[in-house]
Amino acid sequence: MAAASREGERHLLVERRADGVLILTMNRPAARNALSPRMLLELYDAWHEFADTRALRVAILTGAGDRDFCAGGDLKLTMPLMTGARQPEDDWDRELLANPAKFTDAILRGYDIYKPIIAAVNGNALGGGTEMMNACDLRVASENAVFGTPEAKVGLLPGGGSITRLPRQIPYAKMMEMLLVGRPFSAREALDMGLVNYVVPREQLLDKALELAGLLAANGPLAVSKIKEGVLRSSGLSLAESYAIENEVSAAVMTSKDAREGPRAFAEKRKPDFKGE
User: Fold this and answer.
1) Catalytic positions, please?
2) Which of 65, 99, 219, 260 has CA 20 to 30 A from 30's CA?
3) What pTM was estimated for this model as a whole?
4) What are the φ and ψ backbone dihedral angles of 187, each rounded to 5 degrees?
């Protein structure tokens, strides 16, 4: 897409920190941070940059404002465009229609990034918001956050990953209540069922996410990446198949420079200088 067509207020704010943390902020608070064609394409670019840039070790995904994390696909812009009910009006629309796989990459459905991603859920995360969070590895929620997949209430289904991911992440009965009944769950309920790691006051949300990101960024990046790869690739497989993948990722780490640097730094009582290799 031409540079000129990317002018205007960004629908995704991107902050690349010197400590290797990438902060992505969905930036449409007036529209409940719903996924517009432009936001989806900006997310696509950001996720691929994150995956391909060695210096970036951890990502944080959050939303602008105090009310909404993400309301899912924009029902006025994105969903009518994808169903053919709305004709493309600008370069963002045309690019998304020409490359529908960028939609699924943007919401991390089928696009596995073997680096840790933290969700900092700043408010309502209903529908697609919950699905975006389900793709993240660690989740911090503000006390006012609300979760749920209400699609069945309007005759639809949560096809952005929830049917696949939720059964692997929370207990069966709670998962089926979320998917079939479609009622909203509070942040405390989400914490109790293990859907999120922490619930904090809104003003502490980003600090807590950054605290976790700092701990992850300080670990061996190759080890962290291979751990996540092993978990994702072995999910749903037999023990024998899973052990084969575990052996593969273990060998990659144990023969690395980082695997020698870590114990050496520990013995020398200094901070390890990991290179991710």
Assistant:
1) 131, 151
2) 99
3) 0.93
4) -60, -40
